[in-house]
Structures are given as structure tokens and as C-alpha cells.
Amino acid sequence: MTEKKKITPLSKLGEFGLISHLTGDISLHHESTVKGVGDDAAVMDYKGKKMVVTTDLLVEGIHFNLVYTPLKHLGYKAIVVNLSDVYAMNGNPKQVLVSLALSGKFSLEAVDQLYDGIKMACETYKVDLVGGDTTSSLTGLTISVVAMGEVDKGKIAYRNTARVNDLICVSGDLGAAYMGLQLLERERKVFDDSSKSIQPELSGYDYILGRQLKPEARKDIIAALHDNQIVPNAMIDLSDGLSSDLMHICKQSGLGCRVFQDKIPLAEETERAANEMNIEPFIAALNGGEDYELLFTVPLELHDKAMQIKDISFIGHITEAEAGMKFVTNQGSEIELQAQGWNSFGD
Amino acid sequence: MTEKKKITPLSKLGEFGLISHLTGDISLHHESTVKGVGDDAAVMDYKGKKMVVTTDLLVEGIHFNLVYTPLKHLGYKAIVVNLSDVYAMNGNPKQVLVSLALSGKFSLEAVDQLYDGIKMACETYKVDLVGGDTTSSLTGLTISVVAMGEVDKGKIAYRNTARVNDLICVSGDLGAAYMGLQLLERERKVFDDSSKSIQPELSGYDYILGRQLKPEARKDIIAALHDNQIVPNAMIDLSDGLSSDLMHICKQSGLGCRVFQDKIPLAEETERAANEMNIEPFIAALNGGEDYELLFTVPLELHDKAMQIKDISFIGHITEAEAGMKFVTNQGSEIELQAQGWNSFGD
């Protein structure tokens, strides 16, 4: 006998009932959080420190497919991608606000799963959930997250402040989340095309699937930079792909760059999946996106210091604008970088 | 000859092109805005002042109907409803972030209209647009706005700090936005049911239509309270209706209230429209919502001082919890207040 899955319609609770159900057990950790959920607005006190704020909108059918995305992972990811933007300013996230628009297909139990992931991310990254909005929608799920954090005076890392001869550094490895997505999409299509109930072929790819479904933000890198007294000249998080995001730094700084194929960090699973699907691994790294790694530049003289930090690769250097934005292949040919990053308005 | 309306698909610009098109002409006004649009996050410096932050999600088909809502008004309203929450904390809004999810039916020209309204509201209320997110959606338009502001130390007005015998004050008049909506909905249905192209009957109702389509937040009341050195014991903005919002103050403060029908401020047009549509005007005021007026309580001894402020009505007083939350009709009967405010999850 299978236990019947409990399904409670959201209309049974109403908006205020749902909010208190979801936020009733929230505890606050930060001194900067004066007042959280429950009033017209949350109240913060940054006590003279500078504050960074960022927001991202995640739309069902555009940014995620619930066919293969567990709601708990989705909630976790929605928080993480916003925290990643705070880290990319060299900041430390302190508070988040979460807004949800939910269609009638979502039960209370489904929303609880989503919130489990949201709360788990808040716990992991030690941020306070201080507010948001909850409403219905005619179709699907939309998640809007705001993340706020503090940054030490003089330590903010903008995009437009790279300097000539800076080393270009990147954390972790690239292209894995993209290959994870390709794998999930391939199996979804096989499943759609098949009249039989078949199991998707996903074994052996735990790492790249995890990178797509439950990414992490590089809190550890920000801490390591701090511990090693390194303030990057420029920094951005990799959400649209190395190519597109590096171009943001170069264009906004009025400079060029040279990055080298043989320096691009790739995981074994990324290369294996790419080979299996006839994709050039470095193309996945350049244009894939959703890595949520940190891309930053440091002055050449900090090379040895930066070497101390685990899980950082030096992939190239910043040049004068006239030299262009170049990708140097293993064969020595130079390719102009192109912003082929993800564009939701694309044809 | 009619000029052909220009229609530019968003895919022609892409996400980054759209963002720079929309935000290229933004100028920043506040010292607390260190860095606006263009990086991973915006940077603020509140220099030791407390900060309030609030967010609202507006979903097409749930919160607005584009059949009768001009996009410019919608953009204006999306900002105003968020600023209203900042004022309701006794704060002064300084920055907003705006996120849009747009389906394929929206052209660049349509988004420009929406942004015209957004920018007009930012200009009117002197707030800096410092960030956001822009993406596509499968269906319709979703707008997520975040508003941030500063509040003087010791002047924050929470919901849960009303005191027994406080006077209950409300700004402006109530129920007008609700009656405006009823009027628009009536004409939409007539239009839908009719095979002929007929003009909607909206003349003589400019005020209530304006209250629905282009509401204002009560910046002037917050300034007047400040000038008169009045700090409300409790405050909330009227978004869900007087009944529901007053109950928030009472419940969160652990107290009761008595409000009087003959004290409820109603505009002539509100009464006229209500009578025409067989709705009790005071019901529109109690349960209508979207007034974006301020509801606050002050100690009895501040009565004469509060009287100095234009456009404020005293509608009742705060009682012990045991006395309940009562609405006293003109005939002297007492009705228990009920939260019949707007609930998007309602059946």
C-alpha cells in the first residue's frame, strides 16, 4: 500500500496564512537585521558600512524546467545565484527577500519543498530571510530574490576597474552546469519522444548535474581573498559564460584581454559529457553560463600571493583595448571573444 | 493617412541591449547611492542611518489587466505601491530596483511606455533607480519592484506598537480605487459582451479612475508628521483595505479598536459610483483596498497637534484586546471587523 501524498490547496490558507506558515520558524542571525518579516518593510542597520543589493528573477519555462528540477534544489539555487552577485562585489551577504508568484498547480506541500531549499541556502550561507511577497499567477512559478550584504570600505570590486597587465583569475572549473543542462535536456527529449516509461541515462554524471541543479556561490574564495589581503582590481560572477562576463569587465574597464585555451579549468565529467555529445569542451566553458564561479583580475605582483588560494586558475591577462579581446587556442590561433552568453530574448 | 506605429521586437536588442536602452539616461540624486545600474549589485551607503527595504510582485491577470491599464500608469503604480510601504515605516524612500519578465507580445515601444511611468514616479518621488533584472516570460508581464529608504533613529513606525487609547488616523479618503476598479471591470464586461464597438461609460469618474490607475503614495503626510514632530505609535499603508490593515495593527499590537462609520472619509465620486452600482460605500472603504493611504495611531494628547495636518481624519481609537475589533455603524450597531481584504489565492 502506498501512502497517499497529501495535497493542500493554497487557497485553504490564503496569502497571510501562507506567509505565516512559511516564515513562522525563521530565526535571525545578523546584528544588521533590525526587523525581519511581518511589517510593511524590513529594517536594517549597516552601522556606517557600505551595502550592496542585487536582484534576480527566475521564470518557469525560461530559467528552469520543473520536469527535471526538484523544487527544493530550485529554492536553493534561487538564493545562491543572488548571493553570488553579492560575493562578486567582494561583499558578504546578510539578508534576502523572496517573492513568489504561484499558479494553481502548486500545493502547500510543493511550496514547502521550495521553501525548504530556500531556508537551507539561508542556513548554509548564514543569511537572514527578512521579507518578500507571495501571490498567485495565472501560469507557472516566478521567483524574485533580493540579496543584500555589506562590504568593507575600500574593498568593493567593481567590473570597470581592471588595469592593464592584471592577471585574469577564475575559481573552480567552467562549463559543468551547461553540460549538466545539456544532459538533462537530452534525457527529457528521449522521455518525451518515447511511449514507454524509461529511466533517464544520468549515471556517472553526478558532478555536472549537481552544478546545474544545486550550484554553490564562492563564499570560500571571498574569505580566502580577505585572509590573503588581496583586493581584486575587478570582479564579476560567471552567470552568462566566461566569454560574455569577461567582456563585461574589459568593455567597462576600456581594456582588452588574452585568455588561453589550455588554462581554462575543466572537470573530467565536463570533458567526458562534452565529448559524448559532440560539443567542444572549451566552447561549453566559454559560452555555457551558470557556473557561478568568480572571475577577477589582480595586479601581476600579487601572482604569488594569489597562488596561495586553493582552486584558483590563472587563465590570461588584461591588455590595452587596441589588442582586442582574444582567446588563444592550443594551436596558437587567436579568436575574438564573442558574447554568446545566454539571452532570454534570443530568437 | 495614419502613421504606422513602430514595433520593435525585444529580441532585436537582447537583454543587455534592452537594459542599456532603458537605463542609459538614468541620473542619480542621492548621496546614499554609491553605484547604480551596471554591476553585479548596486552599492549604497546609509552612513549609520537605519534602512528599510520592501518588495512587491505585480502579475498580469492577477494584479492588473492590460485591457484598461495604460502601461505608463502601470509602471508609475508599480513604483508607488512600493514607496508607500517605505513611507508606512515613517521612512523616506531613496532607491528602487525594477525587475521585468516580458512575454513575446511586448515590443520595445511597449516596454518604453512602462519605463516612462517608472521613471516619472522616480522623478516625482525623488528616488534613484539603481538596478533590477530583465528577462523574458512565456506568458504575460510580471513586475517585481524593491524599494529602499532611510528612517531616522527612533522614528520607525512598526505595526505592533499601537497603545491603548491611541487615536486611529487615516489620510485622504477610502474606497475610491476599489470603486474605480469596479467601474473599469463593468465597462470591460459590457465591451466583451457586445458585438459592436462601443465606448466605455467612464465620464464623470476621473477621480476614482485615477485612484485605481495612477495612485500616489503619501509622501506629504510623512513630511507633515515630521514637521509637526509627531511620531505615530503604529503605522501601516492601506493596500488590502481598512478592515484587514487595521486588524494587522490590532492583532500585532495585541489590542482592539473601535472605528465609526460616520468618520470614514469618502469622496463624492466614491459614494456616487457605489450608489450607482448598489454597493454600500462604507463596505468599499472597509474592504476595497489599494487606497495607499496611511493608517496610523497617535497618543490622545497629540490630537490637537495632529489636527494641524491637512487631509487627516480621526476614525476611532485603540482599545484593550478584550473589547474586540469593532466597526460602529451610523445606527449604533457594532460589527466585528473581518479581514475580507484582497486575497489572490482566494477561491
Please explain how this structure is put together.
Chain A has helices at 14-23, 71-87, 108-124, 176-193, 206-213, 219-227, 242-253, 268-276, 281-287, 303-307; strands spanning 33-35, 42-45, 50-59, 92-102, 128-136, 142-151, 167-171, 234-237, 255-260, 294-298, 312-320, 325-328, 334-336. Chain A has 347 residues and is α+β, with helices and mostly antiparallel strands. Chain A folds into 2 domains: 13-151, PurM-like, N-terminal domain (60s Ribosomal Protein L30, Chain: A, 2-Layer Sandwich), CATH 3.30.1330.10; 167-336, PurM-like C-terminal domain (Phosphoribosyl-aminoimidazole Synthetase, Chain A, domain 2). In chain A, a hairpin with a 6-residue loop joins strand 1 (33-35) and strand 2. The longest helix of chain A is centred in the middle third of the chain and has 18 residues, at 176-193. The termini of chain A are far apart. Chains A and B meet through helix 1, strand 2, strand 3, strand 4 and strand 5 of A and helix 1, strand 2, strand 3, strand 4 and strand 5 of B.
Q: Which SSEs are present, and which pair or pack?
A:
The structure is a homodimer of 347-residue chains.
Chain A: H1 14-23, E1 33-35, E2 42-45, E3 50-59, H2 71-87, E4 92-102, H3 108-124, E5 128-136, E6 142-151, E7 167-171, H4 176-193, H5 206-213, H6 219-227, E8 234-237, H7 242-253, E9 255-260, H8 268-276, H9 281-287, E10 294-298, H10 303-307, E11 312-320, E12 325-328, E13 334-336
Parallel strand pairs in A: 4-5, 9-12
Antiparallel strand pairs in A: 1-2, 3-6, 4-6, 7-10, 7-11, 8-10, 9-11, 12-13
Helix pairs in contact in A: 2-3, 4-5, 4-8
